[in-house]
Fold this protein.
Amino acid sequence: MRVVPMKALLDRAHAGAYAVPAFNVCNMEMMQCVLKTAAQEKSPVILGIHPLEVTYFGGAQVAVATAKALGQDLDIDVAIHLDHGDEEHLVMQALRGGFSSVMFDGSSLPLEHNIARTRWVVETAHMIGVTVEGEIGTIGMTTEFGERIENAHLSDPVSAQRLAETGIDCLAVAIGNAHGFYAEEPRLRFDLVEQIRERVKIPLVLHGGTGIPTDQIQHAIKLGVAKMNIGTALRYAFVSAVKETCDTEPVRDLALMTLGRAGMQRMAEVVRDYIGIVMSNNRMA
């Protein structure tokens, strides 16, 4: 496994008209499943780790060391990415821990504050070759784990251009996408994507990938999306498989390995499906 800056993966995807999947992982089973399945599909992949998930791992260094150990025999390019880091100290922890990419999410801040703090992260991370993702607009009405966003709004193209001018390597946009399960079929604002593309030339990022129809995802990729985040679908697959195993197997005979394997098998189907959807399979040299 080669841990690389996320920019290297996204620039290739941007030029090749596909996207790199970013799967949120919070434990060894999820990480192992994503890495092995991506290697089987010959797809580059991004391990997205939210600050809460970093803490659950036991810290940034533990998360990075776990990924490297699990992937040491795999022929695959991987970015280890801090997802939705909304404080500078969280970004610094990720940088010190060996992450190859960080997201500074200042989308809930006034624009000028978002720009200033994102610029600081860019200057700091780029000194050591780490990719930076920024965000403009808010991804739906809630955060990754369901907390209500008070000032939810779509991306403004002019604001997107100003944030891109901080030197970020990719930009997460709010174009009708949302975290979690969608209550009804989402309808991405492709007109808004086109307006943003007129002003912003760096790769775009689509959060909230779970449940977006394939045709909409692939059209967004044609318009410049080079990274898509998937979290909810992976967590649901794991939890549902574990629950079914607990319901059907004698409790006295259950080992945690049995539950973990059931979860990984179900998650592998999700990983394989989304790799196909974003067209990143067979992209490894």
